[in-house]
Every structure is written in C-alpha cells, then in structure tokens.
Amino acid sequence: MVKRSGGRLVVAPNWIGDAVLSLPVLRALSRAAPGERLVVLARPGPAAIYRAEGTASEVRTTSGLLRDSLAAQRERFSEAWILPNSYRSALVAFLAAIPRRIGYATDGRRHLLTHASDAPPRTGHQLHDYDRLLESRGIAPDAGPPRLPIRQEDVESAEGALSRAGLLTNGPLALLAPGAAFGWTKRWPPARFGKLAQALASRGFSCALAVGPGEEGLAEEVRADAPGSRLPVLGADLDPVGLAALAARAKVVIANDSGPMHLAAAVGTPVVALFGPTDPGRTGPTGVRHDVLDRYVFCSPCYLKECPYGHECMRGIEVADVVAAVERLVRRETREGLTT
Question: Does the structure show a pLDDT above 90 at 26?
C-alpha cells in the first residue's frame, strides 16, 4: 500500500478574474489546517497571482494533463480540491489516485470525485460559489474579500513603467482597461474609451491604457479615437501581478467585466465597472468602493460571445455616464480621506 505524505492539492481556475475570486478559498483551507502543505496547480497567469498572495505553500504551473497527474501522484497528496467545473480538471486528481477528491458534480465528472457536491445555483455572487464545497467538508468559508499584496519588486516595476510614460508627476491617474478575455461582447466600444480618455484629461486626470498580452491592437483602436491625447499603453509586457501593481498606483480604474477589474479591486483601487452581457450580481467587483454601470435590455444577461442584436447593453452606456461615475468615486474617496 502506498504511504501518503499528506497535504492538499488545489486545482485552480483558469481565468484571471476567477483566480482572484478564489483567493478566500485558499485562506479558508489554510486556516482549517494550519501548517499543512497546501499546493496550488495553476496556469501561468493565475499562478503568478497565487504566488504573490502567499497563502499557498507552493504554486506549480500546469504542464499538461499527464505530466501534472504523474507529478501529483509522486507527491502523494491526501486530498485534492478541484475548483474549476470542467471534466478535465477533475481528471488530474483522478489519474493521480489522490484518495480524497473534492469538487462539484458538474460536466459529467461525478465518478471522478470521491466527495462530490451539487453545484449551487448561479444566483449569488461568484465569490461565494465555493462556500457549499467548503461546508461539505466541515470548513468555514472565509468571509473576507480577495486581497492581493503587492511585492516591492512589483511596486518598483510599476513605478518604472509609469515614470517612462511620464505619469508620475502629473494629475491623478485614471487607468483604462478596455479588454476582456471572454470576447468582444463584454467590451465597451473602443471608441468610447478613447472619448473617455479625452474627457478625463480635460478634468485634470492623467490617463493610461492597461492591456494584456495580445491586446495591443485593441489599445491602438482606443488611441485612434483619442487624437491629440497622451495615452500611454501599459501592461502588455507584465504578468497579472505587475498589472495589479499598476492598478494600485491609480486613483481609479475603469474596466469591463474582466481580470483587470478584479485585480484592481483586490489591491483596493476604486473601480468603475462596465457590464453588458454578464451579471454584476454574479461577477461584480468586491471589497472596494466601486460604481457599476449597466444597461439591462430585454436579453440581459445573455453570456453570449456574439451579439445577435445591436450590442445595446454596452452601447447604452454613454461616456458622460462613466465620467460622472469616476467623479463620484473620487469625491467619495476624498471626502472619506478627510474624515479619517
């Protein structure tokens, strides 16, 4: 019989925003078994987040189904927590023959799990999606919001990027994040972001675009609609933690329902969040001052990657609406700062 050395393996979500929202799960697991080894298996982007957050004993980057399964088998974990709902994510722990495999019975994978729970209804905020799973094993959920500490090396990297862009000595920084990995339907039109940058600049803000790898073309679309404006592009060469460090230096972040929105909230920066085909009640920013703008239409929320109509849910959000939301947040922050 194989002797187990113990410890928990957490198979992490694949998307940046989902990874941020899962951070309280790690805190709950760690608090339930202080000193026990807690290893996270994640894709490169989310892995950077878990490493920076610091709860996990170790964070490993995925390297393929068979390699990951063999590596987990050699480690002889006693327990695996499978956070994604996919069949493949549960297969890693099953092939590794980890004795206790805990997850939701989704995607036809109940037979791969030893402790399967029915998934909760998708009516509450995603932050609480794993509460039922934790409670099924007698673990109290962590009630706090996601928090991401910024390491000194990332602070210095962010300051270097801002300095090179000439943004350290000007007005308050408004960071505009026009992307969304899900698809174009979650994106406020690039032309609106360009007009927004012009409007905020006229009000004394220094504006910059925050994009991820592969979004450079999107940034150029935005810049094309902000003629005459200094609109530096930041973030394409950074990992998610580097992007979070940039967000931490901003006065406000304006973002679609996306990873940058959740990163900004996790570092405590006020957020104006623009929602269209998704539900802010499910994935809105948490734990930070924020203003959600959405224009529910007859088909909202549809969660579609292609809009069969006119994208009214996002086009209904006007530049003036966003400017007003930014000013409300900044006034509120200034007022609260004066009273503390």
Answer: yes
Global pTM exceeds 0.85: yes
The enclosing domain of 268 has a CATH number of: 3.40.50.2000
Residues 208, 80 within the same domain? no
pLDDT tens-digit series, residues 174-206: 999 999 988 899 999 999 999 999 999 999 999
One domain for residues 98 and 214: no
318 shares its domain with 170: yes
The 3-state secondary structure of the chain, one letter per residue: CCCCCCCEEEECCCCHHHHHHCHHHHHHHHHHCCCCCEEEEECHHHHHHHHHHCCCCEEEECCCHHHHHHHHHHHCCCEEEECCCCHHHHHHHHHCCCCEEEEECCCCCHHHCCEEECCCCCCCCHHHCCHHHHHHCCCCCCCCCCCCCCCHHHHHHHHHHHHHCCCCCCCCEEEEECCCCCCHHHCCCHHHHHHHHHHHHCCCCEEEEECCCCCHHHHHHHHHCCCCCCCCEECCCCCHHHHHHHHHCCCEEEEECCHHHHHHHHCCCCEEEEECCCCHHHHCCCCCCEEEEECCCCCCCCCCCCCCCCCHHHHCCCHHHHHHHHHHHHHHHHHHHHCC
